[in-house]
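User: Sequence recovery, please. Input:
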């Protein structure tokens, strides 16, 4: 390890040289209170900026030990520090001048969800922050004095202001930890109270717009109906009341624009913890909850969809069903079976984004098209079995078919964004409008686990498939596009980046079919737990810009890879 003075000397020697000479700076430098590491240097000032990290010993950082022990507290603290660091460097980005990306200082931008990220990690020994810096140049000639401003003036101020506990507002840090502990207590209370979700009284569910995660101002706060109101004692906030969504089949109904989908969206997001001020910080959902929908055109590989679809006219085997261009009904059937394989215990479904013929068939249609001529067993006839035999609850938004009233355990009507429990009233009405007894085929869960098998391309590091991230919804692995637009609980592009590298790693190490999908995903999760999310970066450095996806999103990504 070199000293900071040696770095300053090296910078002076590089001034006005050709840009590639910057690569000689790679390495670690001791700045006294922290260690600066130049991990990767960009090829020219117009390329992706250089990767830089700073490591502060836990002893010097001085954060209380209890803030870093439990994962939920550690992740919340990492998130808080990252947000503070982002605000600090925003004051200095592009203050150093030059061509292209010269002077850029960038760190991961966080949304309202609290995610584990490689941009800031707290280990038993260190606190590490990873970010990007555009090394300055005039044209393609090094401007070392501008980089010296960044490394010796701007960055030390930002690091000193954020990563030392004595410099921070201790009360604000404590609030972050207390919120994390309260959220964890809520999650732990769900199974104890036989709930799949909890929505606190006073929560702000509507968002500013369909493309914004900011809470809507001057909207109606959530208020739970008395019959579904539960009180949960939290370690710091104390008694918190709200609506408990019980296990079983819950129906959310109401007129258009009354808040049905808004409530479901909040439950979708409740698998993640949220920061204070988001409005949904006390909306907590079972973290295995999976949003399901139809996905016309997705690929399906060897999925047993026979519980929903059988006796196809073309005699295709639905016990090992594969297609490169699924219909709405077959894609939704596959999504359910894959969700069960991934370990989901709650399905979240919006009728608006479902295949109508998959969800329900009314009496008149069944009278015209006989059962022996219809290969689809609708979800209406399987939801109860999914709960009683597979232990998977359903939260369903419905607005067009009253048939779902007959299978629901709990029915919530959204009336001007206010929930009303209408279960008793509807059940009484159901007795006056009974459904005919369906002739449903016997329910059977898929027996065998699918082997993880795909074509391997590239046996050496030099032949590795390239990864290119387009946006949160799409990435390229080699020449194959992976479409995740309908994996709706992905909330951050950095999660998609992590998924791309996890898929490449699995393809390189476990694609011979000897392991099943669950075994491959479990192996990846164990490796991440031991080595960290950036383990596939190799010995060179841990890449910044990765966020931890849930296991269910890892399954979803693998299932949508056509290679």
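Assistant: Recovered sequence (563 residues):
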């Amino acid at each position: 390890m070199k000293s900071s003075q040696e770095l300053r000397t090296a910078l002076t020697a590089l001034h006005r040289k050709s840009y590639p000479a910057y690569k000689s700076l790679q390495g670690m430098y001791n700045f006294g209170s922290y260690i600066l590491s130049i991990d990767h240097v960009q090829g020219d000032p117009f390329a992706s900026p250089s990767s830089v990290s700073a490591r502060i010993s836990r002893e010097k950082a001085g954060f209380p030990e209890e803030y870093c022990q439990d994962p939920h507290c550690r992740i919340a603290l990492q998130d808080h520090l990252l947000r503070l660091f982002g605000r600090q460097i925003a004051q200095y980005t592009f203050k150093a001048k030059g061509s292209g990306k010269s002077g850029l200082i960038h760190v991961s931008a966080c949304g309202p969800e609290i995610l584990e990220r490689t941009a800031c990690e707290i280990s038993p020994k260190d606190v590490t922050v990873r970010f990007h810096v555009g090394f300055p140049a005039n044209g393609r000639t090094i401007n070392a004095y501008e980089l010296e401003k960044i490394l010796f003036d701007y960055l030390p101020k930002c690091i000193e202001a954020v990563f030392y506990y004595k410099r921070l507002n201790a009360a604000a840090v404590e609030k972050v930890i207390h919120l994390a502990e309260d959220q964890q207590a809520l999650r732990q209370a769900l199974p104890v109270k036989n709930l799949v979700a909890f929505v606190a009284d006073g929560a702000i569910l509507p968002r500013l717009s369909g493309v914004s995660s900011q809470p809507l101002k001057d909207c109606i706060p959530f208020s739970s109906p008395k019959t579904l109101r539960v009180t949960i004692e939290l370690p710091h906030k104390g008694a918190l009341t709200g609506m408990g969504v019980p296990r079983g089949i819950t129906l959310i109904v109401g007129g258009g624009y009354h808040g049905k989908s808004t409530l479901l969206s909040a439950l979708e997001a409740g698998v993640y913890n949220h920061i204070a001020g988001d409005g949904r910080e006390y909306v907590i959902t079972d973290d295995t909850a999976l949003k399901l929908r139809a996905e016309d055109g997705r690929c399906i590989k060897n999925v047993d969809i026979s519980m929903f679809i059988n006796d196809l006219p073309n005699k295709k085997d639905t016990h090992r069903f594969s297609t490169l261009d699924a219909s709405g009904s077959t894609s939704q059937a596959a999504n359910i079976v894959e969700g069960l394989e991934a370990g989901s215990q709650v399905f979240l479904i919006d009728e608006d984004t479902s295949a109508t013929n998959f969800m329900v068939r009314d009496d008149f249609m069944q009278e015209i098209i006989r059962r022996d001529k219809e290969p689809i067993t609708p979800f209406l006839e399987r939801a109860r079995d999914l709960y009683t035999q597979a232990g998977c609850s359903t939260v369903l938004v419905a607005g067009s078919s009253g048939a779902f009233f007959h299978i629901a355990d709990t029915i919530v009507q959204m009336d001007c964004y206010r929930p009303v429990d209408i279960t008793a009233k509807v059940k009484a009405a159901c007795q006056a409008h009974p459904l005919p007894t369906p002739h449903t085929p016997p329910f059977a869960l898929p027996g065998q686990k699918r082997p993880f098998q795909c074509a391997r391309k590239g046996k050496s590091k030099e032949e590795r498939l390239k990864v290119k991230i387009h946006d949160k919804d799409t990435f390229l692995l080699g020449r194959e596009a992976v479409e995740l637009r309908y994996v709706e609980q992905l909330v951050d592009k950095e999660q998609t980046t992590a998924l791309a590298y996890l898929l490449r790693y699995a393809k390189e190490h476990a694609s011979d079919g000897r392991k099943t999908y669950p075994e491959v995903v479990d192996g990846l999760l164990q490796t991440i737990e031991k080595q960290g999310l950036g383990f596939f970066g190799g010995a060179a450095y841990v890449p910044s810009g990765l966020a931890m996806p849930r296991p269910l999103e890892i399954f979803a990504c693998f299932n949508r890879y056509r290679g």
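The mean pLDDT is 93.
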